[in-house]
From TrEMBL:
Pfam families: Cu-oxidase_4. This is Purine nucleoside phosphorylase. Keywords: Hydrolase, Metal-binding, Transferase, Zinc. The keyword Hydrolase applies. InterPro entries: Cu_polyphenol_OxRdtase, Cu_polyphenol_OxRdtase_sf, Cytotoxic_necrot_fac-like_cat. It catalyses: S-methyl-5'-thioadenosine + phosphate = 5-(methylsulfanyl)-alpha-D-ribose 1-phosphate + adenine; adenosine + H2O + H(+) = inosine + NH4(+); inosine + phosphate = alpha-D-ribose 1-phosphate + hypoxanthine; adenosine + phosphate = alpha-D-ribose 1-phosphate + adenine. It comes from Stutzerimonas stutzeri KOS6. The lineage of its organism: Bacteria, Pseudomonadati, Pseudomonadota, Gammaproteobacteria, Pseudomonadales. Belongs to the purine nucleoside phosphorylase YfiH/LACC1 family. NCBIfam families: peptidoglycan editing factor PgeF. GO terms for molecular function: copper ion binding; hydrolase activity; S-methyl-5-thioadenosine phosphorylase activity.
């Protein structure tokens, strides 16, 4: 139990005072199986009324305004705008009380802030987004010197559970040769076990962001989280970051 009243997570990182962040879990909502119970995704086939109630509860508990995105595994990063659900996979904000929000169920959520607590951002980074440069695009939109940026890696499918084809490995190696360390051969010929956390750290380091925290929570093996690979018909949990009003 934490300050949110459920088993939601508060990121463990040295974010400056004035920056708040939260990751929801499956608990605390109205959705029924297989979306039970705190599903926040409005595109997965859940009852729209239940999703709307869950989203209202989220806003009431956190005391901020989540800004939702229509996520498409792109590298598009935008400025968050209340009341606008833009097609993008990352957003940033300098407006207090406005929460940059991403939904995931195995993809990697990455939260950002600057050391001066003036800007925050959130990115949805599955392997396609990572390879496509969504983290780099988010940092460019954030417009903060890289040595002033802190990043936190939220719950995602872990390296023991994320099997991919050789084309995924090649997509990353074509950009960063050091990404080879993030892929271990699977017991299936021509397949690899991929480490999204390590891939994110490599790409962030390449653009000068070295204050990176989090990592290690596997959505596939941890029943607190939704996992698309564990059950393709499932909900989505949220990772949010905002400046205190």
């Amino acid at each position: 139990m934490n300050a949110w009243g459920e088993d939601w997570l508060t990121p463990d990182w040295p974010a400056p005072a004035g920056v708040r962040a939260c990751v929801t879990t499956r608990r605390g909502g109205l959705s029924v199986a297989p979306f039970d119970s705190f599903n926040l995704g409005d595109h997965v086939g859940d009852d729209p009324a239940a999703v709307a109630c869950n989203r209202r509860h989220l806003q009431e508990v956190l005391g901020c305004q989540p800004v939702w995105l229509a996520q498409v595994h792109s590298s598009v990063a935008i400025e968050a705008a209340r009341g606008v659900c833009a097609t993008a996979d990352a957003s940033w904000s300098a407006v207090p009380g406005e929460a940059c929000t991403v939904l995931t169920a195995d993809c990697l959520p990455v939260l950002f802030c600057d050391r001066g607590a003036t800007r925050v951002a959130a990115a949805h980074a599955g392997w396609r987004g990572l390879a496509g440069g969504v983290l780099e695009a988010t940092l460019e939109a954030l417009a903060v010197p890289p040595d002033e940026v802190l990043a936190w890696l939220g719950p995602a499918i872990g390296p023991a559970s994320f099997e991919v084809g050789s084309e995924v490995r090649e997509a990353f190696l074509a950009q960063h040769a050091e990404a080879a360390v993030a892929f271990l051969p699977s017991h299936n010929p021509g397949r690899f076990m991929a480490d999204l956390y390590q891939l994110a750290r490599i790409r962030l380091a390449a653009v000068g962001v070295n204050a990176v925290y989090g990592g290690g929570l596997c959505t596939f093996s941890d029943p607190r989280f939704y996992s698309y690979r564990r059950a393709s018909r499932t909900g989505r949990f949220a990772s949010l970051i905002w400046l205190e009003p």
